[in-house]
Amino acid sequence: MAGKVLRIMSYNIQVGISTRRPHQYLTNSWKHVFPHTQRMTNLDRVARLLGDCDLVGLQEVDAGSLRSNYVNLAEYLAMRAGFPYWYHQVNRNMGRFAKHSNGLLSRFHPEEVRDIPLPGLIPGRNAIMARFGTNKEPLAVFMLHLALSRRARVRQLSMISEMINEYPHAILMGDMNCRPGSPEMDLLFKHTQLREPAEETLTFPSWRPQHHIDHILVTPELKVRSVSTLNHAYSDHLPIVMELDIPDSVQFSSLAA
């Protein structure tokens, strides 16, 4: 692949739970533990949103436990949306009750995928790093879900910054639990070439978006065509979507079989 327009999405899917009002955090809390019939119907709606994307980073996925009827949700969405490549990363394994995970869906086969343990008071948060391209100018994609604690987020972004700087073409995306202009995001922009967003993209809560805490950030040679949210309340977050031009020097491998 050369000189391609890439469409990327980052989406916290809240384990397939649709939340449309604050009180539903209480009334739907049992759905984080037990299976329910509406989960897969809601995920089918999510899959339709993913259909025209090339690369998707998912947060709050389940890798197959009681609450998901032992279905790996990253795999399910990949199959329903027609992605030939998918990967899941278990962050906290609660056995048969829950397997908290991140997921990566792609229409291109990465040359390398790595799990990156992130520092924090409570162990278990990780990032996914996927490297695309076999030449000297690969595209590195980092996907993560940062901690709720600001102190932990500073440590996590400090660590990721060092890794991002190894690549001239890099994308960082995920639920970062902080806004542009926060101390931890200022640190990220100061120590990397990642560009600050030109405008706020409000993603949370999905029923009345007020906070820009989900991000897709890129290095300067990746030219952003557009960035927006999709107004579909299939989670408590809205998905964020970006279209960008990939330089001709970045050569992707063929589609995964």
Let me know the number of strands: 11
Assigned CATH architecture:
4-Layer Sandwich
Strand content: 25-35%
Q: How helix-rich are the residues, as a percent range?
A: 10-25%
Please mark out the parts with pLDDT under 50 across 5 or more consecutive residues, or reply none: none
Descriptive report:
With 257 residues, the chain is an alpha+beta fold. The chain has one domain (5-245): Deoxyribonuclease I, Chain A (4-Layer Sandwich). 19% of the residues lie in helices and 30% in strands. The protein is built from five helices and eleven strands; from the N terminus they run βααβαβββββαβαβββ. It has a six-stranded mixed β-sheet. It has a five-stranded mixed β-sheet with strand order 5-6-7-8-9, with no helix packed on it. Strand 5 and strand 6 form a beta hairpin. The two termini are 16 Å apart. The relative contact order is 0.18.
In short:
This protein has 5 helices and 11 strands; from the N terminus they run βααβαβββββαβαβββ.
Sum up the structure in keywords:
alpha+beta; Deoxyribonuclease I, Chain A; 5-stranded mixed sheet; 5 helices; 19% helix
Task: Compile the SSE list and pairings.
Elements: E1 5-12, H1 24-27, H2 38-50, E2 55-62, H3 73-81, E3 85-93, E4 99-106, E5 112-117, E6 126-132, E7 139-145, H4 150-164, E8 170-175, H5 183-191, E9 214-218, E10 223-229, E11 240-245
Parallel strand pairs: 1-2, 7-8
Antiparallel strand pairs: 1-11, 2-4, 3-4, 5-6, 6-7, 8-9, 10-11
Helix pairs in contact: 2-3, 4-5
